[in-house]
Amino acid sequence: MTPNMHNRLRPPHEAPTVKPPRFRYARPETLDEALHLLAEHGDEARVLAGGQSLIPLLNFRLARPEVLIDITMVEELRLMAVENGTLRIGAAVTQRTVERSEEAARACPLLTKALPFVGHLQNRTRGTVAGSIAHADPAAELPAVAAALDAVMVVRSSSVERTVPAGEFFFGPFTTALEPDEILVEVRFPSSGGARSSVVEISPRSGDFAIAGAAGLLLASPGGRTAECALALFGVGGAPQRLTEVEDHLKGRRVTSGLLDEAEEMTARTALADSEDIHADAAYRARVAGVLVRRAVEEMAA
Amino acid sequence: MTARPSFIGAHTPRVEDDRLLTGGARFGADVSLPGMLEAAFYRSPLPHALIGGVDPSRTAELKGVAGVFTAEDMSDVSPFPDFDEHARPVEIFPLARGRVRYAGAPIAAVVAADRYEAEDAVDLLSVDLDPLPPVVSVEQALAPDAPRLYPDWPDNAVIEWPVSNPDAIAEFDRLEDGAFTVGGRYEIRRHTGAPIETRGVAAEFREGRLTVWTTTQFPHIARTMLSYCLPLDESDIRVVVPDVGGGFGVKAEFYVEEVTIPWLAMKLGRPVRWIEDRREHLIATCHARDLVLDLEAAVGPDGRFRAVRGMAIQDLGAAEMYPYGFSPTFTAVGHITGPYRIPHQSVGVLAAATNKTPNGAYRGFGIPEAAFGIERLMDKAADRLGLDRNEIRRRNLIGQEDIPYTTSAGAVVDSGSHRETFEETVRVAAERREHWRDRLAGDPRIRVGSGVVNYIEGVTPTYFMTTGHWTSFDSCSIRVNPDGTAVVSVGVSTSGQGLESMLTTLTAEALGVRRDQVRIVMGDTDRTPYGLGSWGSRSTNVASGALREAADALLGKAVRIAAHLLEASPEDIEVYDGSFEVRGSPGAAVTWRQVATAANIRTMDLPEGVKPGMEASASYDPPGIEHTPDEYGRVNAAATYTNASHAAVVSVDVGTGQVRVLEYIVAHDCGTVINPQIVRGQVVGGIAQGIGGALLEQLHYDEFGNPLSTSFLDYHLPTAAEIPPMAVLHFESPAPEMPWGAKGAGEAGIIGPAPAIAAGVEDALSEYGIAEITLTPITAPYLLGLLPSG
Amino acid sequence: MRPVPRPADRITVSMSVNGGPVERTVDSRRLLADFLREDLGLTGTHLGCEHGVCGACTLLVDGRPVRSCIMLAVQADGCEVTTVEGITPREGLNPIQQAFKDHHGLQCGFCTPGFLMTLTGAEPSEYPDDESIRELLAGNLCRCTGYEGIVEAVRAAWGRDEREGRRP
User: Fold this and answer.
1) Cβ proximity of B89 and B324 under 8 Å
2) Are residues C31 and C100 in the same domain?
3) Element spanning C121, H or E
4) Nearest-by-Cβ selection for B721 from A206, A209, A295
5) What would the pLDDT profile of B385-433 be if each residue is shown by its tens digit?
6) How far off is chain B from A220, nearest CA to CA, in Å?
7) Which pTM does this prediction carry?
8) CA C76 from chain center: how many Å?
9) CA distance C60 to C40
10) Domain that includes residue C75, residue range
11) C-chain residues near B196 (CB < 8 A)
């Protein structure tokens, strides 16, 4: 069974609800409190940040938590800073805050480029960067950006703190390495200020989830050859995917039209395109994935 | 007596706007009554099933629940009456009785303290459904061994109306002079009006009278239907229409919830409100189109079309919709030749029931389908002949010398500017296409093209072919109060188009009062005369006809009174801006207030023979409308005909198949323009919906009949970013038989985009020689599939 | 150290709504839009989809546009909330409302408060041309106007005159 991305919001029809079921709500002010609550309520609890994904799921009663733990007032999670070449974004930092941050733009231009694609202004006002990553919608931009940038997820439970690299974080549609008693407290994006970056996507309308998209990073050597390169697809498969074969192929070479042809062909051939929905079949996604990678690389090499 | 400077055609601000801009309007969801309960529905999760039973026992734990009701509780309610003699009979019950025929059909109604609690209760219902095999396409519906939606029917055809016109068929039998045929199957997929306000009903039963607030486009028809279904006289029912947040035809159906909610209010003795949510809207409000036009044209060697034949084949959904969902398909057949001199047609109709949401009305009502079919055939015939696509249209278009022109469908085109709008559109489109080609020349991924199409639209149609019951008239009543303000009540009913403004302007024009002296009353059956509501681009025509007659009667009386007060002759009285003056005697004037005071209060001031009071009513039935077709389907079903030419300038991304409309040009003729801003808004708004249907909107089902487009994440209305700037060119060919020469403008814009964009995309991709575009929406995957890979 | 807050299904919230203080006890699950419409009678905020797509329910929280159908009333605790009623002057219309009226930026008016609130909370300098204005407006759906009058109204309200082109 291919992942149907419309599991996102395709509830049964018999109860077409738009109001959340009953739940209990708590708004801790410290991370310890939040983790304590999560430890206590575990599987029955959900962490609420901006709510831009979770509240629609509640309205449709696709999520029925007993307890919501609102982390937006947790002071430790409202931090955003660049330290030692890393952009640290706490779990309560909104997408809009990052989008408007010059410091973030200098450190991680790819992230800044990707943010305007995330929903609409009204969503980004409340939606958080970490929340989007933790939600792991296969068609969302930010998980792919995290993958392309080799971001590191800082994960806490009441007993343990661990870090998970992006490459090991995303399992599939809406499925990540997060355990029920864990909070994604911070996302660390390695600074990539010197590299070129690109986000290209196909979506039916402005602001929609992508049918297919590519996020990339490219660092050229002084001689014009590709020194470093990272490419990640979204919307094409059940999780963001790095195109390591294509990346390797590009490294050490000059970007020519012949090389772009090869990158396009290699992407279409190697990308795992198993997302199908009413908006596009997998074959379309595979075909345009190649086109999008080509365009991203072309833009970054220009 | 003359009325000096005219309001007609002048820029006047809308009277509705202030309340809508400030949060002061009252929409359906804003109706709140003391002691009110809220309802929610349990809707069928299955497309086709027998209903076993509904077990509400688990809802007992919820203290706010007032009751759970099913069809069995509603034995005192009659099904909708069925008026159509030609279609198979369909009984529509307010809640599904025995069987459900689409996912979304209401099975049980739950009433609770508020919406949250009502949803909690719906969540806890146990409903026993015995699944039946679903039918999800016309082909499947008509297969010999198909499961039947209605077991007592021999098959699933709701209406089958083959036409065999010998004059048309003869043209296909004599092609010896170099004539040829072109044909194709042209498909408009399932979509819907989707106003931003969903439907809603609130009802209160007090002292033997039922008041129903409902988001309908036809309050009087709703009242009549309610009296057919509930054990109440029409006089004991009051239907009130709040501010309505868009209708587009989907609110010109009478829905089962409009019976259920009033019945619940009567049953419980408490006011009950139901506000449809968007998820319900996408499965329970009528769908539209889902039509295949299987057409063939006989074309002369000169490109002149001689005849069209074929079938209009509609997937009607579950058919439980009134007015009838197959009616747009007949309208499509009535418009199949567009504004072209095609002497003969032989196009029949077949509509089959399937296990999908029932089809009903949506802006355009068959005409977008017809335009897509005939315009695609025009393009195909031109390509076959190696003729320019504009030139073939030039050779077929109706000219001034042809008017009045009776189309092969029987439409009597009494006026228009068919060639003029076309040539202007062709000129502008060519210029704009070059502009965009130059501008985007540097981008190797992009191709630019344009397509120009034409149409006519029958406006102010008969409702008989849609309802089997009502015809075409409407009413107006005017009362001038002693202070000179005029209260105008009408049977038409606004859903946001600006009817209050339009009627205010016409009243000021007709009575010589100031615009700020006019108050419009509509959407309240206790306060307005009987009328058929607002649909079919009819309101301007029918309301103005009735208004003019009533106003003329009042004005004649008022002039006599004014003349008497001024001691002048009625022939010398002029009225404007709220006052009556004696021509040539500056300063000799009385106000409307003085005249109305004489009529209503100081009746001793009236001249001899003039009765007190200042009220008049009139009804108006537009002339020339026929209500039933002949055996070949010919009928002049509309009061008059508008025309327009549309052009889309589009870009296609050849790597992804994505289409963008860069610019849209429309030359539009709806006769005399009363309010240019409102007409422009109607045209432009219709085009945006047409672009949505052409590129984005589709209500998908899977092969088991499960609806897949059940939220706004999956049903894609166009945003501002997908809609291009538009150039609107107005032409005015007044309707000879209509008051003020005006023609309705409500639906027109939606008709042109699908064929114009399809032609534009083909033009853009001409170097690839892609296969013909035969369906909408033209999605990126569909289009990329037509392009060679690599 | 304070005790860990207990999850509760009813919560007392206090916020500023259109400049005035409001304190109520609400169900935790109550959506901000319903709180304003049903509990406070501020029906100018409309609900068109209740899943965060159409934008009809847009209002300002601490000056920034949000979708109030996917925000809980309890999440607005301590915030400043502004609805269409709050931007309307005592007499007449404010400049953006007046621009909508002058340029036929509305028909049925159901989506209109959402557009007005988005524009009120947006920073004009971020949207220098028609293209970016249309991107901004894409977070609100209008089914009547074809957006033409709305774009013209924004242009007028923001002192823009020239039409900008479109990107392919």
Assistant:
1) no
2) no
3) helix C112-121
4) A206
5) 999 999 999 999 999 999 999 999 999 999 999 999 999 999 999 999 9
6) 24
7) 0.97
8) 14
9) 16
10) 10-87
11) 46, 48, 54, 56, 108, 110-111, 141-143
Looking at chain B from residue 288 to 317, which residues have their Cβ under 8 Å from any Cβ of chain C? none
Least confident of A183-192, B293-302, B578-587, B715-724: B578-587
Please give the share of chain B, as a percent, with pLDDT higher than 70: 99
Is there a contact between A83 and A165 (Cβ–Cβ < 8 Å)?
Answer: no
**Strand, helix or coil for residue C31:** strand
H-helix segments, chain A: 31-41, 54-59, 95-99, 102-107, 109-114, 121-124, 129-135, 141-148, 166-169, 244-250, 257-270, 282-301
Q: What is the mean pLDDT of residues C142-160?
A: 97
Among chain C residues, the shortest Cα distance to B718 is held by: C141
> Among residues B267, B412, B500, which one has the least CA distance to residue B737?
B412
Q: How remote is the C-alpha of A262 from its chain's centroid?
A: 27
Chains in contact with C, counting 3 or more C-beta pairs less than 8 Å apart as contact: A, B
Please give the Cα distance from C124 to C111 (Å, whole number). 21
Could you give the CA distance from residue B560 to residue B553 in angstroms, rounded to a whole number?
Answer: 11
How far is it, in rounded angstroms, from Cα B337 to Cα B201? 40
B332, with CB counted inside 10 A (0-12, 13-18, 19+), is buried
Angle between helix C148-157 and helix C130-137 axes, rounded to 10 deg: 120
Per-residue burial over B219-232, b if 16 or more Cβ lie within 10 Å, else e, is: bbbbbbbbbebbeb
Structural domain total, chain C? 2
- Displacement of CA A8 from its chain's centroid (Å): 15
Task: Report the residue of chain C nearest A36, measured CA to CA.
Answer: C4
Q: Return the residue in C137, C147, C152, C155 with the most chain B beta carbons within 10 A, the one to mutate for interface testing.
A: C147
| B697 vs A: CB within 8 A | no
Nearest to C72 among A28, A29, A55 (CB): A55
Same domain, C48 and C76: yes
Name the burial class of residue B321, with classes exposed (0-12), middle (13-18) and buried (19+) by CB atoms within 10 angstroms of its CB: buried
- What value, to the nearest 5°, has the Cα angle with vertex B267 and ends B264 and B269? 100
Q: What is the mean pLDDT of residues A97-111?
A: 97
Q: How far is Cα C135 from Cα C147, in angstroms, rounded to an integer?
A: 12
The half-sphere exposure of B699 on its side-chain side, counting CA atoms within 13 A, is 28
pLDDT in tens, B197-224: 999 999 999 999 999 999 999 999 999 9
The answer to whether C57 faces chain B, any CB pair under 8 Å, is no
* B539 in C contact zone (CB under 8 Å): no
C-alpha B146/C-alpha B597 separation (Å) is 72
- Tell me if the domain spanning B31-132+197-245+251-284 has CATH number 3.90.1170.50: yes
Q: CATH 3.40.50.720: does it fit domain A76-190?
A: no
In this prediction the ipTM stands at: 0.97
Domain with CATH 3.30.365.10 in chain B: 17-24+473-620, 288-464+625-786
B30 chain-C contacts, CB cut-off 8 A = 37, 43
Fold of A18-70: 3.30.43
Strands (E), B621-687: 638-653, 659-669
Q: Where are the domains of chain A?
A: 18-70, 76-190, 211-301
Whole-angstrom distance, CA of residue B143 vs CA of residue B136: 12
User: Cβ contact (<8 Å) for A26 and C6?
Assistant: yes
Q: Nearest-CA residue of chain C relative to B727?
A: C148
Instruction: Give the residue range(s) of CATH 3.90.1170.50 domains in chain B.
Output: 31-132+197-245+251-284
CATH of A211-301, one of 3.40.50.1000, 3.30.750.24, 3.50.50.60, 3.30.390.50: 3.30.390.50
Phi-psi region of B639 (alpha: psi -120 to 50; beta: other; left: phi over 0): alpha
- Tell me how far apart the alpha carbons of residues A140 and A129 are, in angstroms, rounded to a whole number: 11
